[in-house]
Design goal:
Elements: E1 14-22, E2 33-38, H1 44-54, E3 63-66, E4 78-81, H2 82-85, E5 101-103, H3 110-113, E6 120-125, E7 131-142, E8 151-156
Parallel strand pairs: 4-5
Antiparallel strand pairs: 1-2, 1-7, 2-8, 3-4, 3-6, 6-7
C-alpha cells in the first residue's frame, strides 16, 4: 500500500506521515526505509512502537528521540527518553551543557515534537546495540475509517536482523 503525503494537514482527520531509515553501518547491506502513518495525538512511545514493528524488531529495549543527528546525541537540544518515564533518573542530570532538557516519551504528543514537515530527529533503540534511525515528518495524510495507527504504508529494502546470528563455534 502506498500513500502520498500532503504538505498541509486536513482539519480533524489528519495523520502524520514519517519517513524512517536505519543508519547504515556494518549490520546493514542496503538502504532500509519505512513510511509510517500515525495520528498526531499519539505519544512518542507509540511512534517508537510503530518504528520498531515496521523493521520487524522486538520492542524489548529502552529508546529515545534526539534532535542531534550526530553520534553525540546526549548533547542534543531536544531529548526524549523512556528512562525518564521509568523513574530511573534520580540523581541524573536532566539538562545538558547546552541547556537542552530531557523529557519522557509516554506522555509527549508527537505533534508537539514534530510540528511541521521537514523536522528530523534521531531515534535510538537498544542503547547496548545502539540501533539508530533517522525519523523525518514528510507530510500529512487522512485517517482511513477502521484503520489502526501507527501503520506502515511503504517499505523499501530488507531490514537487518535485530540480533546477530553468531555461530557458537566462533564464540
Amino acid at each position: 500500500m502506498t500513500k502520498t503525503a500532503q504538505k498541509t494537514p486536513a482539519k480533524d482527520n489528519a495523520t502524520l506521515i514519517f519517513r524512517v531509515s536505519i543508519y547504515e553501518d556494518w549490520r546493514t547491506d542496503c538502504a532500509c526505509i519505512r513510511e509510517i502513518e500515525i495520528t498526531p495525538e499519539k505519544t512518542l512511545e507509540k511512534l517508537a512502537q510503530g518504528i520498531i514493528r515496521a523493521f520487524d524488531f522486538d520492542f524489548d529495549h529502552a529508546f529515545g528521540f534526539y534532535s542531534s543527528l550526530e553520534d553525540y546525541y546526549n548533547d542534543a537540544q531536544e531529548r526524549y527518553e523512556l528512562f525518564v518515564d521509568m523513574d530511573v533518573m534520580d540523581g541524573v542530570e536532566t539538562e545538558n551543557r547546552h541547556g537542552g532538557k530531557l523529557e519522557g516519551v509516554m506522555n509527549t504528543c508527537i505533534r508537539d515534537v514534530f510540528p511541521t514537515p521537514g523536522k528530523q530527529m534521531q531515534f535510538i533503540f537498544d542503547y547496548g546495540d545502539e540501533w539508530r534511525f533517522l525519523v523525518e515528518l514528510t507530510g500529512y495524510g487522512n485517517k482511513t475509517p477502521g484503520s489502526r495507527y501507527p501503520k506502515t504504508v511503504r517499505k523499501t529494502g530488507v531490514p537487518p536482523p535485530q540480533y546477530a546470528d553468531y555461530d557458537e563455534d566462533e564464540a
